[in-house]
C-alpha cells in the first residue's frame, strides 16, 4: 500500500506539500502541484479512510440500534436515516 510519504519521496517534496495539494489548504506552485499529482497517479495512491479516521478522531459513521429489522416499520426508519445521512445537504 502506497503512503503519503511514498508520494512525497517520489515527487521530491515534503509530506506537508502533498497534503496541501490533496486538500487544497495552501497555495502550492503549479509545477510542484503537477509533480505531486503525477506521483499520486504513478503510485496509484488513494487515502486510507481508516487511517484518516484514527488521525482525526472521527469516523463519520452512524450507529443505529433497532429492536427488529424484519419489521417493515423499523426497516423503513433505517432507510430514511441512511438516505438523510448520505444526502449532499448533510455533508
Topology of this protein?
Blueprint: H1 4-11, H2 15-23, H3 30-43, H4 49-56, H5 72-86
Helix pairs in contact: 1-2, 1-3
Tally the structural domains. Answer: 2
What's the helical proportion of residues?
A: 55-70%
Count of DSSP H/I helices? 5
According to CATH, what is the topology of the largest domain?
A: 434 Repressor (Amino-terminal Domain)
Write down the secondary-structure element order: HHHHH
Q: Could you give the distance between the termini?
A: 28 Å
Q: Spans of 5+ residues with little confidence (pLDDT < 50)?
A: none
How big is the Rg?
19 Å
Mean pLDDT: 91
Biggest sheet descriptor = none
- Specify the CATH class of the largest domain: Mainly Alpha
Q: How would you sum up the global shape? A: elongated
Number of strands: 0
Secondary-structure-based class equals mainly alpha
**CATH H-level superfamily of the largest domain:** lambda repressor-like DNA-binding domains
Q: Indicate the proportion of strand residues.
A: under 5%
Could you say what the CATH architecture of the largest domain is? Orthogonal Bundle
Amino acid at each position: 500500500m502506497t503512503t503519503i510519504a511514498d508520494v512525497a519521496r517520489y515527487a521530491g517534496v515534503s509530506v506537508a506539500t502533498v497534503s496541501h495539494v490533496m486538500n487544497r489548504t495552501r497555495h502550492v506552485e503549479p509545477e510542484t502541484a503537477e509533480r505531486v499529482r503525477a506521483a499520486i497517479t504513478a503510485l496509484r495512491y488513494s487515502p486510507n479512510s481508516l487511517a484518516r479516521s484514527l488521525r482525526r478522531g472521527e469516523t463519520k459513521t452512524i450507529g443505529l440500534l433497532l429492536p427488529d429489522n424484519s419489521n417493515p416499520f423499523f426497516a423503513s426508519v433505517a432507510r430514511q436515516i441512511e438516505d438523510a445521512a448520505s444526502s449532499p445537504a448533510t455533508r
